[in-house]
Amino acid sequence: MDYKVCNSDELPNNSTKVVNVRGSDILVCRSNERLFAFDNCCPHRGASLSKSDIKGTKIICYMHDFEYDLNNGKLLHVPNKWKDQNPNWTKSDNLLLFPVSEKDGEIYVRL
Ligand code: FES
Q1: Domain spans, the chain
Q2: Chain-wide mean pLDDT for the chain?
């Protein structure tokens, strides 16, 4: 089901917005004119991704700098500074993505 999360003008290019849909915090962003929507909770250790940097189609979590691909949610990179950590600590699921669309000046996320 599609849920309206905001008006288009509330999400200008290269901006983000946290919305709550059915009890879940979802981060919607417009990066280089493309829309993305994903769980605001980092799949590594749960940091709020709204505090993180988005670079094109990647997000780099502010907490430990893990990098995820916004096209498919996959973990792309774990920084070398964590290479001595227990391998269990550096494990991460992929980012949970949601379909997002824009129609008639409104943005929708599908859950
Ligand atoms: S909590 Fe996001 S990289 Fe660790």
Answers
A1: 2-110
A2: 97
Query: Homologous superfamily of 2-110 in CATH?
Result: Rieske [2Fe-2S] iron-sulphur domain (2.102.10.10)
Ligand 1 neighbours, Cβ below 6 Å, are 42, 44-45, 47, 61, 63-64, 66
One-letter amino acid of 31: S
The answer to whether the pTM exceeds 0.70 is: yes
| Closest ligand 1 atom number to CA of residue 43 | 2
Quickly list H helices, the chain. Answer: 87-90
Mutation pick for ligand 1 pocket among 27, 50, 64 (CB with most ligand atoms within 8 Å): 64
At 67-78, the pLDDT tens digits run 999 999 999 999
Question: Looking at the chain, how many residues does it have?
Answer: 111
